[in-house]
Amino acid sequence: MILLxxxxxxxxxxxxxxxxxxxxxxxxxxxxxxxxxxxxxxYISGLSIVLxxxxxxxxxxxxxxxxxxxxILGSYIEHKMALGFTQIQVITTNxxxxxxxxxxxxxxxxxxxxxxxxxxxRLVLNILAKRKCCDRLEETVKYFDPEAFIxxxxxxxxxxxxxxxxxxxxxxxxxxxxxxRESVEKxxx
Length: 189
Description:
- By secondary structure, the chain is an alpha+beta fold.
- The protein has two domains: about 1-80, no CATH class; about 85-189, Alpha-Beta Plaits.
- It has eight helices and four strands, in the order αααβαββαβααα.
- Strands 2-3-1-4 form a four-stranded antiparallel beta sheet, covered by helices on one side.
- A hairpin with a 2-residue loop joins strand 2 and strand 3 (about 120-130).
- The radius of gyration is 22 Å and the shape is elongated.
- The N and C termini lie far apart (about 60 Å).
């Protein structure tokens, strides 16, 4: 029973630790501060149980192993929450304005220009999107050009432009009222 308690306490602590760290990196210090209060209480509780039961090596092993599980769980939760924004750069051989216009119609802010690559001209798209919209954005790009080169960056801050006000409403145009994603073909019609 003590092993299960140690496991649950440690996995909860490390999950909160991982989330707190991510919130700090994303600039959400108030949320991180609240999480840290809970995190420290759980940490001290778990550590005191382990230290008072050092006669059993399994307690220490479970304590250490659950640390790894906590990191995995915290990262999974953060990935599902998809906080923040991503800047996506797409490089495609499709030089038409079709893809940039469709992305704009979906509510994404797109800046595009023609660039010179090793094998000729390429269309470069610079797109700012909420992280939770990235999979849908990639699906749309791959539908038009399965060979497109896509790279994502996480901006630490941005300001100005029409997108600063509009970017919070982008996902509502891609996800229907029941929370289901529309197909690429349906969005294009």
